[in-house]
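Appendix B. Chain record.
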Amino acid sequence: MTTSLDHDELTVGTDRIRFRLTSCRSGGEVAVIDVTIPAGGGPPMLHRHDPFELYRVRSGRLAIYVESDGGRVRRIDAGPGAVVPIAPGLEHTVRNESDGDAEATVIFTPGEPMERFARAAAEAAPEEVPALAGAHGIEVTRPIGDALVEAAAGSGTGYLTIARFSGDGERLLEEYRSYSEAMSEVGRDHGLIAHAGARTEDGLLVVNLWPSKDGSEAAARDPRRLQVIERTAIDPDQVRREHHDGAHFILFG
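Structure tokens predicted for this chain:
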């Protein structure tokens, strides 16, 4: 993680930050930054803090997860021109789930706590960032997937996807297992509720239960999944897909 000599440009994780207005110049009241978030970037965990936060997307697309009035976390698909306010104390995070960079202007008020955290995080090792967040008044709460599963369980519905891969079942199963860790991470980050894979008489069957269609489609666009698809070189003619709105499901245990 690096900073420029004048400290107006930072890199936090994979995200690049440029200060348009520092809190010092505004008496601590406001900080304004331009942020570039690459594919797969953004804070991976939901969190909350006292400062108000506002995003204006300039290019690309961002997935903004924010706590709603009912206490459940919802996903907002924010494209160019979208303005999304995040009130103080709400659980939230911002992710780039597209396959290209996204750029946004972000306003924090009061600005000083968030600016101080950003500068400290830019100088820290990744494993030190959660402790730094707490020291700067940011409460890290839980993974995005946990919140989405909770929301889906509350509604008792979901979105079911079924993929049938035709071919040599043993080879397909071996390939499925070799990429299971990467695909599990994608599912976790997009709220996957349940997953099953099985060898069949004519190939491989994969079944996923998502909290919503948005979660399924966001996972389908995830750069990590797209990389796996490229590596497997599976012919589209080998795959039959089904998508169904869930009527009801129950989580046991």
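Further analysis of this model is presented in Appendix C.
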